Known about the structure:
By secondary structure, the protein is an alpha+beta fold. It folds into 5 domains: 4-103, Rossmann fold (3-Layer(aba) Sandwich); 132-201, Dna Ligase, domain 1 (2-Layer Sandwich); 207-448, ATP-grasp fold, B domain (D-amino Acid Aminotransferase, Chain A, domain 1, 2-Layer Sandwich); 458-584, Glycoprotein, Type 4 Pilin (2-Layer Sandwich), CATH 3.30.700; 592-662, CATH 2.40.50.100. It has 17 helices and 39 strands. A hairpin with a 2-residue loop joins strand 24 and strand 25 (513-522). Helix 4 packs antiparallel against helix 5 and helix 12 runs antiparallel to helix 13 (420-428). The longest helix has 25 residues, at 458-482. It is globular, with a radius of gyration of 27 Å. It starts with a strand and ends in a 10-residue tail after the last strand. 47% of the residues are buried. It binds adenosine-5'-diphosphate (ADP). Residues 131, 156, 158, 162-166, 168, 200-203, 206, 208, 232, 235, 275, 277, 287-288, 439 line the site of adenosine-5'-diphosphate (ADP). The site of adenosine-5'-diphosphate has 22 residues, from strand 7, strand 9, strand 13 and strand 14.
Amino acid sequence: MFAKVLIANRGEIACRIIRTARRLGIGTVAVYSDADRKALHVRRADEACRIGPAEAKASYLDIESILAAAKETRADAVHPGYGFLAENAAFAEAAARAGLVFVGPGPQAIRDLGSKSRAKAIMEKAGVPTVPGYHGMAQDDATFASEAKRIGFPVLVKATAGGGGRGMRVVAAPAELAQALASARREAEAAFADPTLLLEKYLSRPRHVEVQVFADAFGNLVHLFERDCSLQRRHQKIVEEAPAPGLSPQLRRRLGETAVAGCRAVGYRNAGTVEFLLDEDGSFYFMEMNTRLQVEHPVTEMITGQDLVEWQFRVAAGERLPLDQSDLAIKGHAIEARLYAEDPARDDLPQAGRLVRLVMPTEGKDVRVESGVSEGDEIGVHYDPMIAKIAVWGEDRLGAIHRLQESLEAVRIGGVVTNRDLLAAIARHPAFVAGKVDTGFIARHRAALVPAPSRAPDPVLALACLAVLLDRADSRRDEARRAADRHSPWHRTDGWRLNGVGAQTIRLRDDLGELSVTVRFQGGGYVLDLPQGPVRVAGGRTPAGEISADIDGNQVTAFALHDGGEIAVFGLGPTWRFRLADPFLAAATEDAPAGSLIAPMPGKIAAVNAGAGDTVRRGQVLVVLEAMKMEHALAASADGRIEAIHVRRGAQVAEGDLLVSFASDGKESSEG
Ligand code: ADP
């Protein structure tokens, strides 16, 4: 076995690999960028090396830097994790040249299977069914147009080098093709430095079912059953489970055997995943193969009782596969949910910010929490915004679902918007509980899963106000302590005024608008004028940072975080968010006429599709923002005339920057 492994990755997967390495007695070297100096994976490893600045291109994707770190620390193996260089054949080659064992398949397999087009051609030859489509060399628009016509709309444009749902566009009609090609090319070039595209028939209601395979150097090849990863947004998985619900034993066997046959055809080695689309009629098609460990590998580990990272190390070290196919069996059911810093109410836009509060479910035999961050850490714009994976096991699917529901309920995250409520809603949704999953699930059930904005109930509003009042009281007390005249009436926090009974106002903003709450101080507590009538509230913070309050005689304990003008209340059902309306801080953008575009997150302008003076329709894409390695199409929210475009292609923008302003004479859209 190896003496020391360098993990060419970050976050939860680096931490995950370190755990197994340590158990096997392998020394660990972490690498980090400037943004990750104090990251969890750095703290967990035996040694750590800086490999460059925050941008992945100059650090986690910099082969030279990483190999220099391996040399310096005398590592004898390198584990690439997933993402970054995990499927980069040049990296595997360079590692071998540097005398390192690459924990993964050989460079040729990575090269052949890394391209979706080449992989499809190889699998077709091996007799594996593939999705009908075009994966040729010719890349001009005219060829794509005629091929799309031959395949029949809707078609799916994909980046051959693709991953993580990037560079993928569904095209419903011929007229949309050119724009989809341009945008997919751009995204593919930015993400994979390769603009090559392919076309596929877009299946209307498939399931994503993938098979975990493993091979050693002695010709042993097994599969560790399948995972269903149909629950996706933006073509990217957020809930995965094993085994796939509702498969007949015959179908399960055929999927496993087909995956193994495909891998045998390419002389595969180490861990891999063969992804299929399973159609409603039970036919399945090869989609792509991932030549690495998958994000969702824990569910397979949980139903097979194996440690796949250990298998990877053993095979890479030249050992035989630990088990034969006949030794492997499915036990129980496992589900993983990915917690992301992203906003389901705003097109799942990735979010950045500091994890002011991070409470995860308690880990145990049946609950695994894989995370690469801890409370106080920053979710930055440079890397994947995943916060944690929660993987649970149950004797059967329902048991696993209950554990998932329970675990998600226990999650408390403050400081950034997350998809926690969406995941919790999925875990409770009757169709999910019934196992009726397909890749359109989230889009189809969106209205139920992401409820329209509504006004928070009074107890939630009371807690939000109390959080503000407690903070105001704290800061006034601090000020008073500093002030020369400790008894100055100006420092009183009870609304005391020279002219009698004082009142203060808290102005909360939510998605429905502004709510003004009048507060009166009364007998050690406050009386708040809330929408349903006056509410008496008193309380304080607990050592754990929660607020313990008496609201009209009811005892309530929950988190109400007040940070930088944002208030988040959680622990009382879904997460409720408010902004403190501050007349002095009112953003200039709030006064912008309807239709004006504001950057929803920091990023780079990838395209500007309109000019000053243009008359545009609601829904028309005006600007494309590249952020967190993805393109976000920003569309006009109303019909109108553009007064000015404030950005140019290539410009870096901050969240809240005004990108496009509309003329105030522009009519509002009449459609709702
Ligand atoms: P990536 O490598 O970016 O993850 P995949 O090729 O694995 O891309 O596809 C991601 C997801 O996109 C699939 O799980 C599926 O939901 C959807 N998808 C891919 N190809 C098709 C297709 N031909 N028809 C319908 N959906 C598809």
